[in-house]
Amino acid sequence: MAKVKTSYFCQNCGAQYAKWQGQCTSCREWNTIVEEVIQKEEKSSWKQGTSGSGQKKTSRPLKIHEITRTEEHRMSSGDHEFNRVLGGGIVPGSVILLGGEPGIGKSTLLLQIALQLPYKTLYVSGEESQSQIKMRAERINPGSEHCYVLTETKTQNIFKQIESTDPDILIIDSIQTLHSDYIESSAGSISQIRECTAELIKFAKETDTPVILIGHITKEGNIAGPKILEHMVDTVLQFEGDRNYVYRILRALKNRFGSTAELGIYEMLGDGLREVTNPSEILISQSKDALSGTAISATLEGIRPLMIEIQALVSTAVYGTPQRSTTGYNVKRLNMLLAVLEKRAGFRLGAKDVFLNVTGGISVDDPAIDLAVVAAVLSSNEDIAIPKDACFAAEIGLAGEIRPIQRVDQRILEAEKLGFSTIFISGQNKVAVKNSNIRIALVSKIEDVISDLF
Ligand code: TYD
Ligand code: MG
C-alpha cells in the first residue's frame, strides 16, 4: 500500500509544516497545528477526464501601450448596493468571497441576488436542502426564472452538474462545506478549503464565469480557514452589522476591480434584505424634543456621507474607578478626548462615568466624529440640549485644537440636504460650497464650540 502523504497545517493562519509543533511560528497561536492527509494527483483542468490543453499558450512581455484592452464588461446584479460595492457590477471570471458572522444574512443576500439576476445562476448549498432554500426563496422573491438550486458538497459533482446546466454565475454557500476528491482530509480543513477554492478559481478563469463564495468568520472576525483564501480571490466582501438591529453594511475589504471605499447598506426585513438608499434619515432619531447628551455627526463611511447620532451619558461615578464604556466607538479614543477636555478645557470629568453610544448598531472609525463625541459628552455633563438642527464634523487633536477633515463639502451638502441649519467644522478647512442655506460655523478651539452652543 502506498504511504499516505500528510502534512501539518495551522488551523488559524494556514501555515504548512513538515512536522508537528506546539506553537505556530507564523501566527504565534498555540495548539492550532493539525495533521491533514494530502494526496497529490495529476490534474490540470477543472473538468474531469480532460487533461488540459496539451500545448499551453505562454505569455511574453509587452510594452504597456501594445496591450490591447478588452472593453470592461460588467454583469449587473440587479442590486444597486451590491453593484456599487463591487465597483459597478460583477466582472466575468472574477471570484468574490463574501464573509460575515453566522446569522448575519449572507445566504439571504446571495439567494436574493441569485433570484434577481437576469442570468442563469446556479446556487449550490452545502448547508441547506433544496426545499429549505425554496422556502426562503418564496419569502424573498418567488418569481425567478433563471435560478437553479443544487445541494452538493463535492466539487467534482458540482462541476459535473455545471457541465450540463452551464450557468452564467455560480454561487457557493459556503466554501467551508465543500470537499474535493483530490484531498483526503475532512471538509472545512485548511487543505480542503485551499484545494476547493483553487479548483473554483480555475473554473472561473477558464470559463469566464464569475463565482461568488460564502465564507464563515471566526470569533476573531477573520474569514475562517486560511488567510490565504483572501489572497487567492479577486474580491473580498464583508457583511456586517449588529444582529440585534436591522441594518447591515456590505463593504469591500479587497477589490481588484474597483475601490474599497464604497459601501452598501441594507435593512433586514421579514421578506429579505431591502436596499437603504437614504441611510442618514433612518440613523437619526425622529424625536421632536432636543435631548441633552445627543449630538449629530456628519461622517463618511468609505466615500458615502452618513449622518450619525451620538449619545453620551455622563454621571458621577458610584465606584472608585470611573467607568468608560462605548458601543460603536473606540473606547481608547473616548479616553483621549476626555483627557483633552480635562486638560485643555478645564472640565472635571475624571471622577465621572462616561457612556457613549453610536445609534443604529453601526461602528464608526471616521475621525471626524470626534467633535460630535465631545459635544455629546459636554451636553450630557451640563445637561443642556444641543439644538436639533446642529451637526458636527471635525477631528480633535491632543492640544485641544479642532482639526480639518477630508471631503468637508460632501458632508456640508448632506447636512444641508437633511435640513440641518448649522454645521460646526474646523476653521482650517477650506470650504468650496457656495450659497448654501446652512450656516457653517468655523471653530478652532473647544471653547469656541462651547460659547456658540451653551
Ligand atoms: P442567513 O442568511 O441564514 O444568515 P447566514 O447565511 O449569514 O448565516 O440569515 C439569518 C437571519 O436572517 C435569520 O436569523 C433570519 C433572518 N431573516 C430575516 O429576518 N428575513 C428574511 O427574509 C430571511 C430570509 C432571514
Ligand atoms: Mg448561511
UniProtKB/TrEMBL annotation:
ATP binds at G100, E101, P102, G103, I104, G105, K106, S107. Residues 353-454 are annotated as: Lon-protease-like. SUPFAM superfamilies: P-loop containing nucleoside triphosphate hydrolases, Ribosomal protein S5 domain 2-like. PROSITE patterns: RECA_2. A motif (RadA KNRFG motif) lies at residues 254-258. Keywords: ATP-binding, DNA damage, DNA repair, DNA-binding, Hydrolase, Metal-binding, Nucleotide-binding, Stress response, Zinc, Zinc-finger. It holds the Pfam family Zn_ribbon_LapB. GO terms for cellular component: cytosol. Residues 71-217 form the RecA family profile domain. GO terms for biological process: recombinational repair. GO terms for molecular function: ATP binding; ATP-dependent DNA damage sensor activity; damaged DNA binding; hydrolase activity; zinc ion binding. The middle region has homology to RecA with ATPase motifs including the RadA KNRFG motif, while the C-terminus is homologous to Lon protease. HAMAP family: RadA_bact. Belongs to the RecA family. RadA subfamily. NCBIfam families: sms (TIGR00416). Plays a role in repairing double-strand DNA breaks, probably involving stabilizing or processing branched DNA or blocked replication forks. DNA-dependent ATPase involved in processing of recombination intermediates, plays a role in repairing DNA breaks. Stimulates the branch migration of RecA-mediated strand transfer reactions, allowing the 3' invading strand to extend heteroduplex DNA faster. Binds ssDNA in the presence of ADP but not other nucleotides, has ATPase activity that is stimulated by ssDNA and various branched DNA structures, but inhibited by SSB. Does not have RecA's homology-searching function. This is DNA repair protein RadA. It comes from Sinomicrobium oceani.
